[in-house]
Amino acid sequence: MTMRNVVLGLLLTACGVGSCFGADGAVRYRQLSEAEYEDKVAGGWIGQAVGVLWGQWTEGKWQGQMVPFDLKDWYRIKPAVQAKMQNIKNPKERAEFRDRVKNDPDNWEIWQPDKMSDQDDLYIEFMFLHSIEKYGLDVTGTEIARDWVKYLDKSRVW
Questions:
Q1: How far is CA 56 from CA 3, 32, 73, 122, in A?
Q2: What are 33's strand-pairing partners?
Q3: 90 by DSSP, 3-state: which?
Q4: What DSSP designation does 28 have?
Q5: Run of H or E residues at 109
């Protein structure tokens, strides 16, 4: 990191912190109605769900690399290619095959999901939301744990 980048970063941080205060140095707060707040929270949840469901099929496939083709729609590895990969018994050969096919757009197909997928990035958070709605904002760890045991399949939680 160059000295210029360090100075620029510190300057931007100082400006960002300074913008939280009024001219008199008092902390400024933005008032939201309960309806506005609920709308923004709901929008955040929907945005996260869309992002998770959009990206789950390619999640973890290009770690530390750029995706080698444009993702313009929902994609998944073609079922025939997926079946061929699953039939390779040797883990090293299967990994090599996966690395070869994932970078070739001909091995992918545009696909329309027909149902909500079983996505841990969502159902774990929905479990927390359920507990908060059930017990209120002062929900305890014990109450959340009881709900986890009651409602979540332990074999599905990471």
A1: 39, 33, 12, 11
A2: none
A3: coil
A4: P
A5: strand 108-110
Cα–Cα distance measured from residue 62 to residue 69, given in angstroms and rounded to the nearest whole number: 11
Of 105, 109, 101, whose CA–CA distance to 78 is shortest? 109
The whole-angstrom separation of Cα 17 and Cα 11 is 10
Closest to 75 (Cα-Cα) out of 105, 36, 33? 105
SS3 assignment, position 108: strand
32-76: per-residue pLDDT in tens?
A: 999 999 999 999 988 988 888 878 777 888 888 888 877 777 778
Furthest C-alpha separation in the chain: 69
pTM (two decimals): 0.53
Query: Whole-angstrom Cα distance, residue 24 to residue 41?
Result: 31
Closest C-alpha among 53, 104, 60, 48 to residue 74 = 53
Domain limits of the chain? Answer: 1-30, 33-56+117-158, 59-113
